[in-house]
Amino acid sequence: MKVEHSIHKLFPVPLFQFQISDDEFNRRQLELLKEQEFTQKSEGKVLTTSGDLHARPRFSELNTMLRSCLEHVRQAYAFQCKEFEVNCMWGNKTLPGDSHHHHYHPNAYFSGVYSPGDVSESIVFRDPSMQLKQSALGIPNGESEHLDAFSCARQAQQQAGSVYIFPWYLQHQVAPNPGPGPRYTIAFNAVPRGSLGSLENLTFLSL
Predict the structure, then answer these.
(1) Is residue 160 within 8 Å of residue 26, measured between CB atoms?
(2) Ranges of the chain whose pLDDT falls below 70
């Protein structure tokens, strides 16, 4: 008896990519970022700024650009809210040989990362169901033509001017910096603002 089968990749996680082709804009943001004060955080080797860059006048041009990207995301989802607003934004400085450990961004609806300068390493995004899988039996696997359907990681190439926006819960990391100098990126979180939902559908909320 012949039995046919197929594999369906259910529930994909959206990853929005934008590319800022204005080299002068990217250069300005990189120079501004290099002027900021970076400190060591206990959870990793990456140096970071405080999380209020979005509120600083010198970063208003970047904040406006990111809000424009977030508006594309809002429209893609057809979200019933006024806008998505950056509520936290900080700079990352990774020294040669150091890496950015896998993590996610709580207290946000969307998260993102902007690369003002050239970055040779990709962002590695991890399957959000990994935590569930790790709580079950860990069965080793060998090679399979279908293995890609079950892969737990995907890479997204960074370059000068790239912006990635993704759900807050999506874990990600960056490989060690192989270059002779520091690697700079700007990360951010965003939340909905204004009136959400509608009174007619009993889903109204004002933020």
Answers:
(1) yes
(2) 6-7, 9, 41-44, 130-151
